[in-house]
Amino acid sequence: MSCSKCFRLLSTRAWAGWVVLLIVWLGTQTLLPAVAQTGSTPISRHTVLYHARRYVEYTYQYQGRPYNSFPYCWGYGDSIDNIGDAGPGCGFCDWFQDRLRTPCSPEQGWCSCGADCSGYVSRVWGKRIEDCPPPYECKWGTCSLDDTAVSTLIPSANPDPDLVHRMRMGDIFDDCGNHVVLLYYFNPDSTPANRPIYYEEVPPRARRNETGGWGYIAGYAPYRYNEIRDDLYLPWLSHAWYGWESILFARNNNDTPVDYVFQHTIYTAGGDDAGAINNKTYRRTKADDLWELPTANLQPGNFYRGGGVVAADTGDSAVVYIKGNSQAMAYSGVYPFDSLGQASASTLYMPAFLYTQGGNGYRSKIFVQNAGKTATDVTATYYGDDGSPPCSHTIRNLAPWGTTIFDVKACGWGGSPPAAGAVLLSTNPPQSIAALTLEHVYWNRLGGYNASSQGATVLYAPELLKNAWGMGWYSALHVMNVGGSAARDIQVHYYTYGGASICTDYLATPTNLLLPNRHRAIDHGGSTCVSGYDLFSAVITSDQPIVAVVNEDNALYGDFQAYNAAIAGQSRLVLPIIRKGSSPHWEDDWAASIIVQNATAAQNHVELRLYDQAGNPLPSPPNPLLCDLAPQASCLLYNEIPNNFSGSVVIVARQPVAALGSLFNNNLSDGAMKYTAVEAKGVSTLGLPGEEVP
Questions:
Q1: What does the pLDDT look like over 420-430, one tens digit per residue?
Q2: Which residue, 266, 238, 239, 264, is CA-closest to 252?
Q3: Which residue has better confidence, 508 or 126?
């Protein structure tokens, strides 16, 4: 369909002339590469907005005139009659085919190249040029963008507030046969409030429209691309729910100051569009800054327990702090996809569930959030260590963004649950979910860890304990086989923090197999292998993919915490929140430490760059903190962290590392919490469009 607002100032004949200008490119310019996603591959909101911004910023010259946007090949058979076709031998096609590997070429007889409103959205949403079969129609028109195979209508009784709560960056307002715009955000500071800001293509340029407002899109319908995913999923948020409160710490990972927008939306446990309770939208020009957002500030009402999401056009990372009943824990915000095995997925792995008979002692609950595009049934299958048959518990029809809780007691065991085991989470129909486990000991010692989306044959555990510091801290390593066959060889290689080998424990051998989805643990309090050592690390190797979690318990002082073993090291990681000391600007008094493990057999130099919550780098010294690590060595930083510091840490290493952030709220009876460092997702690390794929 034609895009009439795009062509309002141009006749069909005149527009054909404009296209000839648009399709010519001068060799002094570098065009963005084709988007790597296909029409059926998920794409994050920050990637969509990155594309939108880059295409607006792209400029080129033809015959002394500047042009903005990204011209592309439409090819034979396109139905838009406003675009004239270039005859055989059009020079742009030669260049286009060479750069983008598209079938558009003079050998096809003729081709059409150009840009318009729906073509812009097609590019930004990730419709891939290389995937277009003959007749090479490589875009969605304004009347195909709203097809149910492509997008979903966002329901609303009142555009404001309904759409303000339900829409986020990367959604569209579409008018079939006329025009389409890509939503950036609703401006909370405008007069009147919540004026929509959007990106659009109005040839010969793409632009950000900050003045059109609601009137410009009157009569347009709101749609969400079926394959768009939020940047972070938050399976457990609370306000006045059995005394539990949550605070989101979300970090802007761009390391160059840029004007950006950050959006945080919370949902009822029931989820779906109607479950969007409230959101907060902020705009800043900063780099490396940190948002601190108590869930209470979004006014969800008392006894709130639900989930949330984050979207930001710079890319972000987050930690959620959960506090209540004089206890605390933390978990990492869940990416839609990552390379460290803590993303959302249609199948997730929980290496350990714990249950003490009689209803006391160790207990586990699993918080699950639908991170997919449609409702799904979620099944938790428990594999007990006692060798009993697996027990499955299914919760039906969990809506998008909806959350639910699995309790091991609710499964039909026919008696008391096993004392320990592993959990497999699955969905039908397959939809991505995000999840975390809450673990507690007699409800006075609390910890938690993120679900794993994939395993590996080598894992890293930066901190293990055996009466550490003489203060009663002990660790237990829980390993789950997520491969398709029985594991015959799982070894736990222990190292001092200086990198010296200590000994090896064996969790699976040819005569002691670990079956798929089963769990096995080592309690370091009872391990003779590490006798004489109180603080050490481990590299776990296996002949099958595995996942693992480390529980750390201090019965003497009533503290408990947990973290995920890393499935890989990276040379750049982020700890979104580290807090030490006290300040009038935050609650309570805090302690903190950072542990970094060299994930290679080579000498490694590591810098830890500290930024306060406003994004300002701390002065040097002490910033950056330095670790020079021998092969397999680790470093523990505690005194080196400045007092009264609250902010984030970027870890940059010459060789891959794994890392942990450890926080302790001194005002709570159990204020211990720990989390695994996450990927530094952001514009500066994303690179060119299409680099971020599952």
A1: 999 999 999 99
A2: 264
A3: 508
